[in-house]
């Protein structure tokens, strides 16, 4: 009988070790799952126009408005500034951790300016550089005039409801 008691005690001790090992494994798996859910893999979101690769290179100065529509598609908005201007507006954001606010990574306004004959006279790819509106094609910062008066509010409209840090 004594031998049976010792043997039973060993089995109980072994089961206790197994169950505490399982609990530890389950706790580690739950913690890993929680970290994966909370941190995510960093989601990225594209809002607005998605510029096809090489699209701007397919639009030479002097191209027709119809040619622009074929390559770029319908503009986000159109304005009249000494001829028509097509604006294609986009914004990229990312969320590094699930359930947190999106952070703006990049925002662009592609402007295609036409003369009175509906031919491309200029292209601009506006974005923010050092907090200022910058044309990445001409490598200049517009400072005044109708052009900046129209483009600046587009960037402000993109930031509505967004945190900028």
Describe the protein's topology.
Layout: H1 2-39, E1 43-48, H2 65-72, E2 77-80, E3 84-95, E4 103-114, E5 120-129, E6 132-135, H3 146-158
Antiparallel strand pairs: 1-3, 2-3, 3-4, 4-5, 5-6
Description:
It is a single chain. By secondary structure, the chain is an alpha+beta fold. 36% of the residues lie in helices and 29% in strands. It has 2 domains: 1-39; 43-158, Beta-lactamase Inhibitory Protein, Chain:B, domain 1. The protein has helices spanning 2-39, 65-72, 146-158, and strands at 43-48, 77-80, 84-95, 103-114, 120-129, 132-135. A hairpin with a 5-residue loop joins strand 4 and strand 5. The chain is elongated, with a radius of gyration of 30 Å.
The H-and-E topology, N to C, reads as HEHEEEEEH
| Count of separate structural domains | 2
Compute the CA-based radius of gyration. Answer: 30 Å
Mean pLDDT: 75
CATH architecture of the largest domain: 2-Layer Sandwich
Uncertain residue segments: 7-11, 160-165
Short description:
The chain is an alpha+beta fold and 165 residues long. Helices cover 36% and strands 29% of the residues.
Which short descriptors sum up this protein?
165 residues; alpha+beta; Beta-lactamase Inhibitory Protein, Chain:B, domain 1; 2 domains; 6-stranded antiparallel beta sheet; 3 helices; 36% helix; 29% strand; elongated; disordered C terminus
């Amino acid at each position: 009988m004594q031998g049976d008691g010792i043997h039973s005690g060993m089995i109980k001790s072994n089961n206790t070790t197994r169950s505490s090992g399982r609990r530890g494994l389950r706790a580690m798996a739950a913690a890993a799952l929680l970290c994966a859910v909370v941190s995510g893999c960093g989601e990225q979101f594209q809002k607005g126009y998605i510029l096809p690769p090489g699209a701007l290179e397919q639009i030479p100065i002097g191209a027709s408005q119809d040619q622009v529509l074929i390559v770029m598609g319908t503009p986000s908005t159109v304005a009249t500034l000494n001829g028509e201007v097509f604006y294609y507006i986009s914004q990229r954001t990312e969320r590094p951790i699930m359930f947190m606010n999106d952070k703006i990574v990049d925002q662009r306004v592609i402007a295609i300016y036409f003369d009175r004959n509906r031919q491309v006279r200029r292209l601009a790819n506006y974005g923010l550089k050092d907090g200022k509106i910058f044309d990445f094609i001409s490598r200049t910062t517009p400072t005044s005039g109708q052009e900046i008066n129209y483009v600046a509010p587009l960037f402000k409209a993109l930031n509505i409801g967004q945190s900028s840090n």
